[in-house]
DUF4916 domain-containing protein (Goekera deserti), 708 residues
Amino acid sequence: MTELTTASGTSWLSREEMDSARERLPILYVDAVPVRVDDHGTVSAIGLLLRVGGDGQIKRSLVSGRVLYHERVRAALLRHLEKDLGPLALPRVPPAPQPFTIAEYFPTPGVTPFHDPRQHAVSLAYVVPVEGDCAPQQDALELTWFSPLEVREPTVLAELANGQSHLLLQALAHLGV
Amino acid sequence: MTELTTASGTSWLSREEMDSARERLPILYVDAVPVRVDDHGTVSAIGLLLRVGGDGQIKRSLVSGRVLYHERVRAALLRHLEKDLGPLALPRVPPAPQPFTIAEYFPTPGVTPFHDPRQHAVSLAYVVPVEGDCAPQQDALELTWFSPLEVREPTVLAELANGQSHLLLQALAHLGV
Amino acid sequence: MTELTTASGTSWLSREEMDSARERLPILYVDAVPVRVDDHGTVSAIGLLLRVGGDGQIKRSLVSGRVLYHERVRAALLRHLEKDLGPLALPRVPPAPQPFTIAEYFPTPGVTPFHDPRQHAVSLAYVVPVEGDCAPQQDALELTWFSPLEVREPTVLAELANGQSHLLLQALAHLGV
Amino acid sequence: MTELTTASGTSWLSREEMDSARERLPILYVDAVPVRVDDHGTVSAIGLLLRVGGDGQIKRSLVSGRVLYHERVRAALLRHLEKDLGPLALPRVPPAPQPFTIAEYFPTPGVTPFHDPRQHAVSLAYVVPVEGDCAPQQDALELTWFSPLEVREPTVLAELANGQSHLLLQALAHLGV
């Protein structure tokens, strides 16, 4: 996961406190796979963000971020979708809270397919149809829509960091595309 | 399930052939629980149809119907939603094919909570957010929206036939409301 | 799917009647992905059957078969698991009826990733841990256990017929392995 | 949820640090609904623990507890099952990581059906078949098996604290019983 805690006051911990917690507790995240669907509800495109990571490298990523204290999971999903896709994206968060899978990001590589050098994060993963206009916000440079076929290409998958290519493939399998 | 095979040419079997198949094979159905969701994706209302059953009794029901030969499950869902809710309902069929549960309707009462005197039907059940205007069609007299609280009232549940009250409660549990 | 309707009296239709139904109605199937799990419930191996298909070709397949009239889905799963893996396999059928996905096998290739030249079949797919000794039965020549890594090899996937390689990959994604 | 963090060294935070984190971050939990299944995988009984809560009151509860830093969700499930049901319980943790739902326990009552005065906890909920002998451990006084019918009785449901009766009913709905 790319750096998603912002200085915008959405976090209720100072950076020092958050860094300390990150060394002690699994941190709860949400991951959203933004999709375009046609009239039949069939997925026609998958959206990936282009970001500059903490190390200056340009990487693709899913919409991803922390759940805050006293925040509903659904509200966290909407907050991160709006933060990354803009206020006119019209995301259709699924009405049921069951995620299609969970992703366990470990600070140690190799424990799971997911890796986050900063922390142990456990993410609830959802597919979210997006109906409006998306405009990348904040640290996201671009949002690119790929067809289900294009997004599986090794060159695209290789641009996803932290094992999110694995989560993307899990989402595609869940969608049956 | 109320009588859902129509004389409109959507069925590819004569009534006699269909009656014969119904005595020999489990018939594949879809059940849809139509819901209204707010901006956060939280369910605010559940829609139930009011129908006149084959026996002349007035009953409530979910949107329900058969999957036809060479028809995708997704297409069957949309066809039955349009048939019952009208062409302007704008149903948002979930992008993934995993149903939240299956309902096994047996011709013999008591085998499962679901009962269909006409046949052994196995139904794939989905929750479907509906965004547009609903106008009951064909044999549906009315579509009524209930709040999650109202729809659980014993008087409402008692109006659902064939064990669909059980399926409705399963949907509410899945939705976490 | 390989031919799974047997002459053993488990089918309630004559072959002619079944052939006729297959041209008229979607037929309800179950697909099971047999797995070995360790003490932690982590999948260590996936089992594939080796069969001689109707065309004389040797192919690998999942455990798969039809749901009969008046048969519970759970009972159909157990019947096909016992038929293919033998009476000592000790399958642990999941307690909840929600399949991890559905597979729509069309007689026309290309409509979905799944294809069955004989019929339109819709299959409910489950992952089933198997704890006992497996001995292939009837038309199954062999059961082979593959590690999650081995089973993804293109040579293994290519031996699965009717698009079941797609279903296997969906199962692996669902399992997170 | 009853107090589940023990002084046994399984926690990597001092009580003061944990109390501080609990005021700042959602804490990741797992909830397990222990079930007995018959040969067909049908649920025959649901297990509830009897505990003395922090306030001295005797309450029933599900198996529930925190996920630790650098602990897999699967390992946390097994640890809490063993802690509460004893080392011979032989739990069959599901092979897939997808929970059947999530439960959001808020420190403020009424935000969700779930309430935990100590913290904001988000729990991943699983149904876990248990095949061995259960012996309540530590602060659990007793484990009682209820039939699916008995466990729904208002007197039983009323003995569950923190909204876990709601989660139990969600599990029963998911199981279709």
